[in-house]
Specification:
14 helices; nine-stranded mixed beta sheet
Length: 565
């Protein structure tokens, strides 16, 4: 491709609103242009990278026996009403009506659509296992689209769905998909860490995210130094090392605590450490159930873990008005003693083994001191409900947890039978009995994967694209366009190495302009045809090299083959 006719509108200055390195490079290099907030056009350079990435995905999916198809972007809302997800998804969903007033939506994901097709087609266990996927544009009305392609309102995504007649089939599909994803990420040159994760509004269990460590990542992953533990912070577990020495149980006593509207103030007023205080937080679950959650006051409640424990669709901390109406106490005064108004009391494991603690007295500006579990208050069940903190021991090897910011580039999880049961996707098993199809769900954020690659492969002035997805494998730069010897050599090299996808800078521009643009193109090999052309000498440079090296044209073929083949 001749650069003189290639549309690559580079920018000299970095746009002020581009914070992430990947956003800066892709704007400056002419890869993308914003149309509106969170919506981008993919210009020729960006589209080449996108298509090469999609080609790798298609190859590895085919190798794994996953069949490609395509679904519509615009979907009837009735599908989502049938699955029960329509009211849960929230304002991120783009909703519209057709001319007949029927409710429609732009697909943010396609569990329902695939399930409906399967429900009409799969009738026997003999038709499974079945594994399908698509690469398609998705739509989510993000409240704060930012960081370029990392969080947009329109983006390209692989979403795949597996259908199985048994748990054993699902387990194999899940493992096959995980192996294929690791191959995809390796080929696209992005470092990923598979981590334990939450499946969110998709539903399902056994969730694994593929996280790419990056400075601007919106997620935080917790790992240990040995690499034996990795989890998204939402699901991270740590070992609680605090142990209170057993002591004689004292008589519970109510004390006034005026103005103590925080744990710090309460601890200071009573002259006790936070480890001797049990926080009581009331949650309204699914807008009907009242659940009181207890946790040692030096810890914070992880609401993702709490949601899983309660198996609920929604939960929220009770408002002050709710507290006063239900308990008669304001914020800070709620406690577990005589809490008959609660439908359930659940406690974090940190509450076990505590003696003579401080809890809310059930009225404003008052606390009970010397309260004890099982004697003065109870918990219906215990679980790990706390946020893990950096430096706490991991649950595998008890090494300190290390926190890393990262970008989620892929997510796989076992959906089970939620969608198939609600939408009637059933089959006859070997015994002639009707069973729900068992599903898995798999996704790769294709466009955000590009940003993750740039974040990890950014150079001082541009990017060093991994060879399999680089927009061009070789970038030939001619110094003087009026020099016939240089032109002849550059054209010969362009033709000779055409199979490597060559960009030939034939523009009549200053060398500085050409080199600056070459940094943004980020081809694995840059060949400069200059004043030594008459002697059969060129300069070659890889993006990570400090300096270019001179190389005889006769040695070029072996050099390029060693780098790109």
């Amino acid at each position: 491709m001749r650069q003189s006719i290639f549309f690559m509108p580079t920018l000299k200055e970095t746009p002020a609103d581009a914070v992430a390195k990947s956003h800066q490079v892709m704007l400056r290099g002419g890869y993308i242009r914003q149309v509106t907030a969170g919506v981008y056009s993919y210009l020729p350079l960006g589209y080449k990278v996108l298509r090469k990435t999609e080609k790798i995905i298609e190859e590895e999916m085919a190798n794994a026996g996953v069949v490609e198809m395509i679904m519509p972007h615009m979907l009837p809302a009735s599908m989502w009403e049938e699955s029960g997800r329509l009211p849960k998804y929230g304002p991120e969903m783009f909703r519209l009506k057709d001319r007949h007033g029927r409710d429609m939506l732009l697909g943010p994901t396609h569990e329902e659509t695939f399930t409906e097709v399967v429900a009409k087609s799969l009738k026997s266990y003999k038709q499974m296992p079945l594994h399908l996927y698509q690469i398609q544009t998705k739509f989510r009305d993000e409240n704060r689209p930012r960081f370029g392609l990392l969080r947009g309102r329109e983006f390209v995504m692989l979403d795949g769905y597996s259908f199985a007649a048994s748990r054993e089939q699902l387990d194999k599909q899940f493992d096959d998909e995980k192996a294929a994803y690791l191959k995809i990420f390796k080929r696209t040159g992005v470092e990923v860490r598979p981590v334990i994760a939450d499946s969110g509004t998709m539903g399902g269990k056994n969730s694994t995210e593929f996280q790419a460590p990056a400075a601007v990542g919106e997620d935080t992953i917790a790992t240990n130094a040995s690499g034996t533990y990795a989890a998204n912070l939402e699901m991270a577990v740590s070992v609680d090392t605090f142990k209170q020495e057993p002591e004689e149980l004292k008589a519970m006593e109510k004390v006034a605590t005026p103005g103590c509207d925080s744990i710090d103030k309460l601890a200071e007023f009573l002259q006790v450490p936070a480890t001797r205080i049990v926080k009581s937080i009331l949650y309204i679950v699914d807008e009907k159930k009242k659940v009181l959650v207890l946790i040692r006051a030096d810890k914070e409640i992880n609401e993702v873990k709490l949601t899983h424990l309660l198996d609920c669709d929604s939960l929220r901390v009770a408002e002050t008005s709710d507290l006063e109406e239900l308990t008669g106490a304001g914020k800070g005064g709620v406690g577990p003693v005589n809490a008959d108004w609660a439908d359930e009391i659940v406690a974090d494991e940190t509450v076990k083994g505590l003696y003579n603690v401080v809890v809310g007295a059930g009225e404003s500006d008052a606390q009970f001191i010397n309260a004890n579990l099982d004697r003065d208050f109870k918990a219906d069940r215990f679980a790990d409900l706390r946020v893990a903190n950096e430096g706490e021991p991991d649950p595998i090897d008890h090494e300190p947890l290390q926190f890393t910011t990262s970008i989620e580039v892929g997510h796989i999880f076992k959906l089970g039978t939620y969608y198939t049961e609600t939408m009637g996707a059933k089959f006859l098993d070997q015994n002639g009995k009707t069973q729900p199809v068992i599903m898995g769900s798999y996704g790769i954020g294709v466009t955000r994967l590009l940003s993750a690659v740039v974040e990890q492969h950014a150079t001082e002035n541009g990017v060093a694209w991994p060879k399999e997805i680089a927009p061009f494998g070789i970038h030939i730069i001619q110094m003087k366009m009026k020099d016939e010897i240089q032109s002849k050599l550059a054209e010969d090299l362009e033709a000779k190495f055409a199979k490597y996808d060559v960009l030939y800078d034939d523009r009549n521009e200053r060398p500085g302009v050409k080199f600056n643009d070459a940094d943004l193109v980020g081809a694995p090999i840059r060949i400069t045809v200059g004043r030594d052309a008459a002697d059969g000498i060129v300069e070659v440079k890889r993006p990570g090299d400090d300096q270019a090296q001179k190389l005889a044209v006769t040695d070029l073929e072996n050099f390029i083959a060693s780098e790109l083949d």
